[in-house]
Amino acid sequence: MASQGVSLIPRVVPPDAEFRQWAHYPEGDAVSPSTKARWFYHAHPPDQREPGEHGHFHLFLPCSAFDGIEALASPGPKDKRGKTPTKVVHFAALAFDTAGLPTHWFTVNRWVTNEYLMPAEAIIDRLSLFDVSDAPGDPLVNGWITAAVALYRCEIAELLRQRDAGLSDGAYEDRDREILSSVDFEL
């Protein structure tokens, strides 16, 4: 990316495109055909972002990786738009600032991504399955995201444990609990 002079975010949201809040980049998400792991990038309205945040990546494993594991919570049969929820497990998000640099990892409550909430230890045991290197789109972005998760595996594991501790009362739909744990992205 450095040799081409084009960093990560302009590869996800082209500079000539109209950047729309809440829209998924890429449209339909970046889904690995081999692992079914996925990611998407998006941004909330400015008043709902951290100061200086441009947007963030949401990262998912497929539910099929959790066969035999009981979910802590599941989405309803239809989402607010009347669609059947995607069978995915959110494990972390990675925020980027307006300069295009990663700032911090975080976890969210189940309602935020309308997904299957699996126990932290089950996700931790499967983090090595997150590989989006063959997903459609820019291979440098997909490789970077795959490597970032591998590099930060221990931090993500701790975030997931903190998430579960924060939800020990089963408040998976509490709209006052959105972000449950966070750690800086520091190399």
Structure description:
This protein has 187 residues and is α+β, with helices and mostly antiparallel strands. The chain has one domain (8-184). The protein has helices at residues 8-12, 110-113, 120-126, 139-151, 153-166, and strands spanning 25-31, 38-42, 53-62, 88-97, 102-108, 179-184. The protein has a six-stranded antiparallel sheet with strand order 1-2-3-4-5-6. Strand 4 and strand 5 (102-108) form a beta hairpin. Helix 3 (120-126) runs antiparallel to helix 5. The two termini are 17 Å apart. The model has no long low-confidence stretch (mean pLDDT 93).
- Which percent band covers the strand fraction? 15-25%
Question: How many structural domains does the protein architecture include?
Answer: 1
Radius of gyration from CA coordinates: 16 Å
| Uncertain residue ranges | none
Order of helices and strands: HEEEEEHHHHE
Distance between the termini: 17 Å
The helical percent reads 10-25%
Shape: globular
Task: Give the class from helix and strand content and strand pairing.
Answer: alpha+beta
Quick rundown:
The chain has 187 residues and is α+β, with helices and mostly antiparallel strands.
